Predict the 3D structure of the following.
Amino acid sequence: MQLTRSWYAVEHSSAVPAGSVRRLDFHGQAFAIWRAPDGQLSVLFDRCPHKGASLSAGLVGEQGLACPYHGWCYQADGHCSKIPAQDSSQSIPRRAQASSLHCHESVGFIWIWWDPDARSSSEELPPLPKVGPVPEDGDRSWRSLEGSVEWQAHWMRVLEAFMDLTHAPFVHSGSFGAMAPDQLMPVEQWAKDDSVYERVLAPRDRHYRADQGRGLRAWFNQGDEQGSSISSDDGGEQHIQLWLANVSLVRVVFGDFQISLLTAHVPVDGTTTRNLWRHFRSFLRSPLADSNARGRVDRFMAEDQRTVETLRPLIPDLDGHGDLLVASDVSTLALRRMLREKRDAGLFR
């Protein structure tokens, strides 16, 4: 099941530096994401129209993306500009055109407009989702990390999991969920403009700052744990929001102690989702704390993965017949209602 005529975040911008090409597996198809030496980004179907070779295995040069089989060169719009084996007096066939997708970059991700029937012109495209707030690149008051992990689960199930806070005391009982009450209900919730949001009052995770600082103390030979724990029992807030088609943002705010996890849930195929994450922290900004921060994100992701990969049916029933949803599933209900509207408008295939 695919949501069409929608923007998807599909790769980290940093994964495709100038002069490089990378394969993208998306909704069961293969694409080549490449960046010209001048920085221009392009996404082409991963097939050379000559003899079907994989363009993502090619090389990027001044003349574009060169097919690894016979060196045919393609421009950002997919137009073939050079056939090395052909005499310069011969014209390039009109069919020497690799299909391309509209693409943009924002919040550290590469986005594509998914319209398999190619009905959308560039003038008709809606703007990218206004994802945020997230720190600007180069903001020295934050430290950021990136990573990815694949789950054997349908992308809709993964989207729902990142909006479902009531699972925290159980799935995450060995980490941040240990401090959460069983009845973790939002104090604010809304769904509009292809986005779902909720705000939840959250207990402080006492061990987070201590865990992050432990690596620094070891580095400097400071084994004293005194003062490493959070002294205040005050709670904070969690802000959870998703934007269709596939991006979520979790922000944890305890005064100056702030963490954000921005994730693109990329549908590789009908059974696999690749989660591309960007983690931001406003404290312990030294690179020496990165290992602990990354390990903690990996742990949270693994806790969710173990459960989400077991969910059946694989694809959630948008009409509510497959799952028994109750009032505490308010954000799941809102998301499914939004997806039903998309389906009824003919945007699923």
In short: Confidence is low (pLDDT under 50) at residues 215-233. The domain at 143-344 is CATH 3.90.380.10 (Naphthalene 1,2-dioxygenase Alpha Subunit; Chain A, domain 1).
